[in-house]
Amino acid sequence: MNLLEDIMVIQAKISGAEAVKLYDIKMENAAIIRKAARDIMVSGNNLEMFGFTDSKYYKLIRNLIEEFRILFVDWVAKFNPKHFIVDEWGLFNPPGISTDYVQRDDEFNFLDEDEDDEF
Question: Please, which domain of life does this record's source organism belong to (predicted)?
């Protein structure tokens, strides 16, 4: 069971998403947070399956994850989609932006120009 690992991942990825300006990086962190939270949700079943006597208290954790989910949805909605670099894998592009939006060379030029900018 990776309960503590998932909790640490959530904390680290929230910090990581807050530390950057780029939409695609924020969304990537958000996806990792979502996965870790879902893993926490289902890990309660493992406790019951392995016969832990206090697994009934896991419902508290599930309730807290649900409260977190509601806050998470609002947080993600505030990500600014105007600050992005095209995700060549197509997973974390802002709505309406495809992988062929910017030529590869233009993307790297954009990165070079912003190298000194603080995020």
Answer: Bacteria
Closest CA to 64 of 79, 44, 84: 44
Higher-pLDDT residue of 104, 48: 48
Please report, for residues 31, 44, 51, 76, 109, the alpha-carbon distance to residue 25 in angstroms, rounded to integers and kept in the order given: 10, 30, 40, 12, 18
The average pLDDT across 50-70 equals 86
In contact, 84 and 111? CB cutoff 8 Å: no
Residue-range domain boundaries for the chain: 3-82
**Could you give the C-alpha distances from 89 to 93, 100, 105, in angstroms and in order?**
9, 11, 16
Contact indicator for 16, 4 with CB cutoff of 8 Å: no
Q: Give the pTM.
A: 0.77
